[in-house]
Structure formats: structure tokens, C-alpha cells
Amino acid sequence: MPRDNKTPLIQKIAQQARLTFRGLQAAPGGDAVVADRLAQLISLVTAVRAADLKVAPRKSKPSPGAAGLQGPPELQGPPVTYMHICETEVFSMGVFLLGGGASIPLHDHPGMNGMLKVLYGKVNVRCFDKLEDGLSSAPPRFDPPLAPQETPSVWRAALRSVTQYSETSGPCLLSPARDNLHQVDALDGPAAFLDILAPPYNPEDGRDCHYYKVLRPAGGRSQEQRREVEEEEVVEEEVEEAWLLEVPQPEDFWCGGEPYPGPAVSA
Ligand SMILES: [Fe+2]
Fold first, then answer.
1. Residue 101: which domain range?
2. Cα distance between residue 126 and residue 106, in whole Å
3. Mean predicted lDDT score pLDDT of the chain
4. What is the pLDDT of residues 123-147, one digit of tens each?
5. 45-54, 66-75, 201-210: which range is least confident on average?
6. Residue 238's pLDDT is what?
7. Cα(69) to centroid of ligand 1, in Å?
8. Of 56, 194, 16, which Cα lies nearest the Cα of 117?
9. What is the CATH number of the domain that holds 90?
10. 16 CA distance to ligand 1 centroid (A)?
11. Which of 43, 257, 263, 266 is the most exposed place for a label (fewest CB within 10 A)?
């Protein structure tokens, strides 16, 4: 088959995402055809670079969300910006730009699959899953203690992985059952990543975005000890138990929008 060099890579990704996730939604367990399509999609996404989307790396300006920056938030730009590329019933695709030191706080993707591919810079991704048995085991005491009204919003969870990604890394994958919750932190300056979600968020269909805070059991590891673990290059398949509290969207996180400058995509 002749190679198709005229179709922009991002258009090929959109076509392959539609094919892959339409198949996955029809057969949630997947089959050999879906697995093959997913492998092709991962291969295309792995190849994408910022230049393919005409996204230029930003200068290293601290984000308003970064610790230590002074001044009223309304006078500063958003810590995170989203460039919408396309959305169908099957999937949505866009680019997140993170300022230096910015984070996308821990959040979920209920019933969704996803792919995150770094375009420039470096990010740290911490992935969690809520555990099926929820609160069947009594939660420990936390530091600081929970308010009584917070207890129903506590989830037992597993910390699945803490991994750093750069533009040469393959995509970070998530599914309804695996690595579904994540926190994304820009490391060593600004970063950007391509984000594909399938199906897209849709609160009317039970797919709203919720935010979470990791609770620290009383007498558990200190923040510093936890950070030391995170700074190890890759911690694969870590099965550390975690306790998450559902919280409102953090005040220091908000997402601005700007136009996507790359090749037009029809999905
Ligand atoms: Fe996400």
C-alpha cells in the first residue's frame, strides 16, 4: 500500500481514534481487531510532536498556580490552557498547555478511555484507581482529621504508578478500570500534551469530572518522604493503598482556552 504522506498526522490520529474507540465502545472487553486498532493508534500518537500541531514551546514563565507567585489571580494568566481540536460522540481531542510549575489536580474520567502524549517539556503523572469495595474496610484516622460531613466522600484507592513522560515517551493510557484517576504536574518548566478522551466528558451521561485530594493517614509517611518516592524515575505497578477525598475544583486551578493552531481535523 502506498504511504499516505499528504494527510496530516493529527488527522490520521483522529481517524484511527474514531475507529478504535467506536469498536471499543461496541465491545467494551475488546477483541483482537480492537487490540490491533489500539496498537496502531498508540503508534501514531507516539510519533506526534509539537511541530505537527504547530504548537510552539512556551517560555519558562512561572504559572500563577505555581507556589510563591504573588498578585491577584485575575491579573495573571490561567495556569493551564486548553486548545480544542475536535469532539464527536466517540472521542474528544485537544492540547493542554501547562505553565512552569503548574499542575492539573487529581481528577477522574468516569467510564472513559484516554491517552495523554507529551508534546514538549516533561510531566509527572500519578495514576490511581478507586477500589471496588469502596469503604468496606474502615478508613484509618487522617491528619488532619476528617470533618463528619466529609466521610461519605472518602474513597479507598490504589496508587497504580508514578511516571515521568517527555516528548520521546509513548502515551500514558487510561481506561474505565485502570489508571482512571490522575494528577499531572509540569516538571522543569512549561509542558504540553495531546489529550484524547473516549467517550468525551458528558455530565448528562454520567461522565462529569470530579476532583480529589489524597488523604494522609495519621502516623503515615510525611509529605517529604512521599515526594522522595515520586522523584524516583519510574515506579511501575506500585500497589500502595491510598485514601481519596472528593473535593470541589481547587481554587488555584482553572483552565483557559486558546485556538488550536494546527492542521484542520475532521472527525
Ligand atoms: Fe485527565
1. 80-257
2. 8
3. 86
4. 999 999 998 765 556 677 888 888 8
5. 66-75
6. 44
7. 25
8. 194
9. 2.60.120.10
10. 20
11. 266
